[in-house]
């Protein structure tokens, strides 16, 4: 989970082109939207694509977004709970 | 006192018909044109319904005696402009200072996206004819060239309000005596580019759209073209043409809230509608019918609905979104819906908003459920709101 | 027309943005394209905003910002942008990914940024401008259409301040494709020799120029007195006829034009018409600009910037001048430009 959150921070910065931030600037539990990192609705869509591209996890209903993307931690938890099991 | 612009001819092609008569018949019979994608291959083929014009490029091209390789956007545009000019009854446009102003968002992308696929594999083998009409302005050039219009040529791309803004500019040029006749409207063809683009925004409905319904899930893309022949008073007199309506008011504002979403309270839309009424010297109570932008997205319908109620108060006139029939025709929507609005005045009809079943919680008014005829329609408002915060509202009045 | 220029800014292949002197530092380009010199955006565009912006949007936001500052206008009453190709980098990005990934998991940002009206929309957002907003995209008339629209708006609202600009960008792919249409030189050439070594083809260019236009003369840099567009003229005579009529309508004869600024591009296929036009003005200073901007559909916006500078500073820098008339005072500047022989425009600037 810790490793996943670290990786996510790097991926988020890259996907959203947050050139002014480094991974250590984003706290695990810090709000990503509105306050905290200050992302917007376009970023939310980009994070949905990130989950699909990197983790094969699909978010069908964008209204779930605020919950899933509340923080890096909640994103990691969602990935853990929804990623497809690895084949043996 | 500046001259107003009069609508003297109408032309339209959409998912519900290849001319005005067919469109009106479908509107009367509640016959939507939304269905599966047939124009191109896509992974979304049986998942995302669209409003396709039910005419192939081959048929369009052959009826116009044009190459079948021409971009569909131009074919649709030329087809609709032809009907508009014919219906105006003006025999010789070139006798007058005549211009064309067309709105489009995709331009020749239906062909360029095919070109690019080949180009990516092998740059030199991609056929140039597929890319040469990519630009939005080239579509208007093709239309102008077909009808030999040369005095003024312009293309507007303000996303979904493009053709409404075209009608606005056309009216201004006539009012300022810079042109006598302007063919104004817009055209857009369905493309994989826009389908995938809107899908990436997650605002497409996998079912036929339900504008202004509480349970709405998004829009369906459509395609088509709609044009009006706008003329000055002088042309009306000298050509002995019967005007169909007067362009009584218009306004263009910007929501300046977000790149793709409207402000929740519909500030920009409210401002555009209010200013259009002011220009037309009309009270809200004078409006007999509103052709809503009504895309079927959560955001648009909510903010447009709130803005409408704020402006019209307890007396919201009959209102509907014809996108429930045609889908969202993007750059063509303002033009197509202007044609429907003027036809509404002419034929004394108002159109239903299909698939409306659940009242929206944010507003009190409900859109029309049924087609109505024998309605006194003197003043119609037509709304077009687009990405980039572009808000345009037009009013048409009987004359 | 009564349209006055209150402020302006240009980002071009020359150092026209950060350098306030009129074309004192000239950039040379060898090849067949000239690329815009982008400024440092620090202090101009917030890091959180710039992250989504491709070049065309960055240069538009920066140039429009500066034009407003120069004009002393906080929030304009309207924004009108002309662009022929639109946001090519974002369009290409989305299209390529759509094809590559076979329509699966596509990033929405390039699609959102690909629409032609992104510049006008983005500027409105950043400037909190709820006023009139439009985008014209008619090839070599994209900027001219903006001027026509602006003049109509200012006729009704002379107190308004309108932000009006022209912008087009080059991306590697677009240049490659346009090259296949034989628009550009086949052999490498220096832009500084382009006009002296005519051949088939010219050099591709890009840039963004914004103006703040008002119906109010006070503190204006120049007046845009009149404009005329001529679409697909049958021949050079048609252009000359229109030009003479244009001068007549403005109560001017050729000897009263102090500076003739033409869009000669070094392309032998189109320079012939320029020659015929230039011959009508033997007593005017003759200036060229395309060796500094490159050829692109909205280059006439850059030409208007050059012409206005000439009027404002009463200067005709050597780098522009083909011929100087010896007149000490510049009152009338006539710009004649054509875009590959299809779109011809005349812009009359006055002090």
SSE inventory with pairings:
The complex is a heterotrimer of chains A (88), B (399) and C (351).
Chain A: H1 2-15, H2 41-55, H3 65-68, H4 72-82
Chain B: E1 5-13, H1 20-28, H2 57-64, H3 72-88, E2 98-103, H4 109-121, H5 136-146, E3 152-156, H6 162-175, E4 181-188, H7 192-200, E5 224-231, H8 233-239, E6 245-254, H9 267-280, E7 289-291, H10 298-312, E8 318-320, H11 323-326, H12 333-347, E9 349-350, E10 372-373, E11 379-385, E12 390-397
Parallel strand pairs in B: 2-3, 2-4, 7-8, 7-11
Antiparallel strand pairs in B: 1-5, 1-6, 4-5, 6-12, 9-10, 11-12
Helix pairs in contact in B: 2-3, 3-5, 6-12, 9-10
Chain C: E1 3-11, E2 30-31, H1 47-50, H2 55-71, E3 78-82, H3 88-100, H4 108-114, H5 118-127, E4 132-136, H6 142-156, E5 161-168, H7 172-179, E6 189-190, E7 207-214, E8 222-231, H8 236-249, E9 259-262, H9 268-278, E10 285-288, H10 290-293, H11 299-313, E11 321-323, E12 332-339, E13 343-350
Helix pairs in contact in C: 2-5, 3-4, 8-9
Offer a few descriptive terms.
heterotrimer, B: 399 residues, Peroxisomal Thiolase, Chain A, domain 1, 10-stranded mixed beta sheet, two-stranded antiparallel sheet, 12 strands, 18% strand, C: 351 residues, alpha/beta, 2 domains, 11-stranded mixed beta sheet, two-stranded antiparallel ribbon, 13 strands
Structure description:
The complex is a heterotrimer of chains A (88), B (399) and C (351). Chain A has 88 residues and is mainly alpha-helical. Chain A is built from 4 helices and no strands. Chain A has one domain: ACP-like (Non-ribosomal Peptide Synthetase Peptidyl Carrier Protein, Chain A). In chain A, helix 1 (2-15) packs across helix 4. The radius of gyration of chain A is 12 Å and the shape is globular. Chain B has 2 domains: 5-239, Thiolase/Chalcone synthase (Peroxisomal Thiolase, Chain A, domain 1, 3-Layer(aba) Sandwich); 247-397, 3-Layer(aba) Sandwich (Peroxisomal Thiolase, Chain A, domain 1), CATH 3.40.47. Chain B has helices spanning 20-28, 57-64, 72-88, 109-121, 136-146, 162-175, 192-200, 233-239, 267-280, 298-312, 323-326, 333-347, and strands at residues 5-13, 98-103, 152-156, 181-188, 224-231, 245-254, 289-291, 318-320, 349-350, 372-373, 379-385, 390-397. In chain B, a hairpin with a 4-residue loop joins strand 11 and strand 12. The longest helix of chain B has 17 residues, at 72-88. Chain C is an alpha/beta fold. In chain C, strands 4-3-5-7-1-8-13-12-9-10-11 form an 11-stranded mixed β-sheet, with helices on both faces. Chain C has a two-stranded antiparallel ribbon with strand order 2-6. In chain C, strand 9 (259-262), helix 9 and strand 10 form a beta-alpha-beta unit. The radius of gyration of chain C is 19 Å and the shape is globular. Chains B and C meet through helix 4, helix 5, strand 3, helix 6 and helix 7 of B and helix 3, helix 4, helix 5, strand 4 and helix 6 of C.
